[in-house]
Amino acid sequence: MSLKRLSSFKKQLCGNGAIQASDECKKDVSYLFCSLNDFINYYSIECPGKENVEACTTCQREADEVYQKNSWISTWIDSIGKMPSGISDGNYHWLGDYEQCQMLKLENKFNGHYCMIEFEVPDTILNTQCDNQPLEVHLGICLPASCKLNETKAIIEDVAQHKMGVHCEPPSEWHTREITFLIVILIWCFIIFAATIWIWKFGAPESKTYVDNIVEALSLQHNLRKCLRTTRKRTMFHSIDGLQVVSIALLVNGNIFFLIMEYLENVSFSYTSSEDIFMQPVINYSVYADGLLAFLGFRIGLHVLRKGYSDSSTFWKHLLSRFFRVWPPYAFVTLFVSHLYIRLGYGPMWSHNDLPYRCEKTWWENLLLINNILGFKETCLDGGFLFALEAQFYLVAIVIIYIRRNSKTASNTVIGMLITISTAYIFIVTNIFKTYATLIPTAPAFNANHESKYANYVNLIFLNPISRISPFLFGLGAPLWCPIKFNPTMKKLIGLFSFLIGLSVALIIWFPHFVKKFETINSYIDGVYAALHRSAWALAIIALAYVFENLNEGNVIRVFASWKLFYPMSKLVFLVFLLSEPVALSLFASLHRPINATLFSIILTTVGTFVCSYILAVIVEVIITLPIRHLFDFICPIETPPDTVLSGTQNRGSIPSVDREIEPFIRKNGH
C-alpha cells in the first residue's frame, strides 16, 4: 500500500467516518490514527525564526506538547513486524515486538492487543513470473483491543484493500461458557479430593455400603492404583503392549514433524527432509495409527475367545461400558481445548496457534464422534479422528460378534466383504481424484493443486471410516482365524517370518521415497499402494506379535516388548495422541520467535512431548476417566469372563472349556 493511500486513510479513520464498528472500537481506532496523523505532522511543523521570539517560543511549546502527547506512536510503529532475513528459506514470520504492544497497554498509552495478520503477496506483485504459490506473510501488529475480531478484520481489509486473515489475543474478560466449564471442573475436582481425603482418613471398610463403593470409586488412591497397575489379566500376547507404546511414540514423532512446519524459520528443512531416505519412517508416519487400530481389533478378538460376549443380552452393557471408557476423557480434552486452552499462553506465536479457534467452532461435532465423517475442517484435535474411528469400529465389531454367535461362516464372510469394499474404495478414489498415496508426499508431488489434492486425500481416505476399517478387521479376525501357538515346524521358520515382516515394513515405509514423482507415474501405482499399504502394515505388525509370542521366554526382544511397564502405558495410547497436539503446540506457540529445526531438535521435542502427554494422560485418566468408569461399573456391572483361552491352566495338561475352533490348536501344541 502506498504512503499516499495510507495518508488518505489515516485522515479518514481519524475522523471516524470510514469505520463501521462499535462506538468503543471507533473511539480507539480514531485515537490511534489521529495520534499517527499528529505525530507525522509534528515533523512538518515550521516555527518562526529569531525575528519573532514570542511566536517561536509558543510554536515550539505547542510542538513539544504534540510530540509528548503522541510520542508513543513511535513505539507502536516499532512494534509492527518488519521483513526479516531468510525469506527464500521460508521465514515468513514478521512478528514484530509483542512486549512493546503489551507495554503500551500497561502504561495506559494505548488500549491495544497483539494480533497476527495473514495475507498473501501474489506473484503478480512479486513479478517473478513463476507457478509457485504466492508468499504468505504472517505480520504482527498492535491493534485496538476494544474491536471485535470481525471489526478488526473489516478495518484492516478496508485499509489494505486486500483479503486478510486476522488472529488476535483473546479478550481479558472471560465468556460465560468458559466460566461455567471452569466451575464444573473445580466442583468435580473438589468431589474427587473430598472422596480421597475420606478414604485416606477412614480407610475402606471390609463390608462396604452403597456410599462406601461410590466414595472408593471416586478416590485418587483407588484410581491411581488401577491406572498404574502392571498385573495383566491375560497370560499371552504381552508383547502387544510394547508394540502399542512403540507405535504411539512413532506416531507422535511423525505428527510433531507435521505440526512444526508453521513455526519454523527454516521451512525448507521440512521439504528437504521429505527427500531424505533416513527420514522416511518419520515422513510416512500415518501407518502407525493403523497398527493401533489393528491392535484394538486384536484385543476385541481375544476377548471374544475368552467368552467375553457370550450373552447377547449384555451387548448394550458392553456398548455403554466402552462409551464410558472412551468418551469422558475425549470430551474433557476437547472441551478444555475449546474453552480454556487459549488462556494458558501468550506471545506473538501464540496468536498463530489456531487450535482454540478451530475447536471453538467444531467442538459439538467432535463430541458426537462424527468429526472424521464431516472432514478435516470440522476436526478439533488431530487425535480426535482416532477416537471417532474407535467408536465407529467398535459398533461394527459388536454387529460382527452378534452374527458370529449364530454363524461363524457368516461373520467371516462379513469381515472379508468389508475388507474388499474398503480396499476397492481406496483404489477407486485415488484414481478418480488423483490423490496422494500417503499423508505427507515427497516434495516433487507438491504443485499448484496441492491444497485440493490434500483435502481430497484427507477427507475421502485418511479420515474416512470406510477406507480405515481394514486394519481393524484384520486385527479382529487374526485371533479368531490363526493358532495362538506355532507348531514345531512353524517355530523353525521364525527367522524367515521375521525377515519377511522386516521386508514388508521396509517396503511400506520406503515405497513413496523411491517412487517420487507421483504426477509422472501411472496413477494405478499410487492407487495400489494407497489401497494395500495400511492393511499390509496391520498384517505385518500382527504377525510380529505372533512371532514375539512364539520366541523363547528368555529372548531379549520378547522380554523388552513384554515389559510390565508397557501394560499401563498401552491403555493410554489413544489419549496420549490426543494430548500430544496441544502439548506440542503449547511448546512452539509459546516461543517469541520461529525456531531453526534440526533432526536432533525434533527428537528432543518428541521425547518431551511424549513424556508430558503421558503425564497429562495419567492425570486425566485418574481424575476424569476412571471415576466415571468405576461409577458405571458399580451401577451396571458386567461379569469379566475367566481367561479360559489364555489361562495358565493350559500348561498343566488340562483343556478348559474353550471355543471349538481353537481347541485343536491348543491340543496340537501340547497345552
UniProtKB/TrEMBL annotation:
<dbReference type="InterPro" id="IPR052728">
    <property type="entry name" value="O2_lipid_transport_reg"/>
</dbReference>
<feature type="domain" description="Nose resistant-to-fluoxetine protein N-terminal">
    <location>
        <begin position="22"/>
        <end position="180"/>
    </location>
</feature>
<feature type="transmembrane region" description="Helical">
    <location>
        <begin position="572"/>
        <end position="591"/>
    </location>
</feature>
<keyword id="KW-1133">Transmembrane helix</keyword>
<dbReference type="Pfam" id="PF20146">
    <property type="entry name" value="NRF"/>
</dbReference>
<feature type="transmembrane region" description="Helical">
    <location>
        <begin position="531"/>
        <end position="551"/>
    </location>
</feature>
<dbReference type="InterPro" id="IPR006621">
    <property type="entry name" value="Nose-resist-to-fluoxetine_N"/>
</dbReference>
<feature type="transmembrane region" description="Helical">
    <location>
        <begin position="242"/>
        <end position="263"/>
    </location>
</feature>
<protein>
    <submittedName>
        <fullName>Nose resistant-to-fluoxetine protein N-terminal domain-containing protein</fullName>
    </submittedName>
</protein>
<feature type="transmembrane region" description="Helical">
    <location>
        <begin position="493"/>
        <end position="511"/>
    </location>
</feature>
<feature type="transmembrane region" description="Helical">
    <location>
        <begin position="457"/>
        <end position="481"/>
    </location>
</feature>
<feature type="transmembrane region" description="Helical">
    <location>
        <begin position="415"/>
        <end position="437"/>
    </location>
</feature>
<feature type="transmembrane region" description="Helical">
    <location>
        <begin position="384"/>
        <end position="403"/>
    </location>
</feature>
<keyword id="KW-0812">Transmembrane</keyword>
<feature type="transmembrane region" description="Helical">
    <location>
        <begin position="597"/>
        <end position="624"/>
    </location>
</feature>
<feature type="transmembrane region" description="Helical">
    <location>
        <begin position="283"/>
        <end position="302"/>
    </location>
</feature>
<keyword id="KW-0472">Membrane</keyword>
<feature type="transmembrane region" description="Helical">
    <location>
        <begin position="323"/>
        <end position="342"/>
    </location>
</feature>
<feature type="transmembrane region" description="Helical">
    <location>
        <begin position="179"/>
        <end position="200"/>
    </location>
</feature>
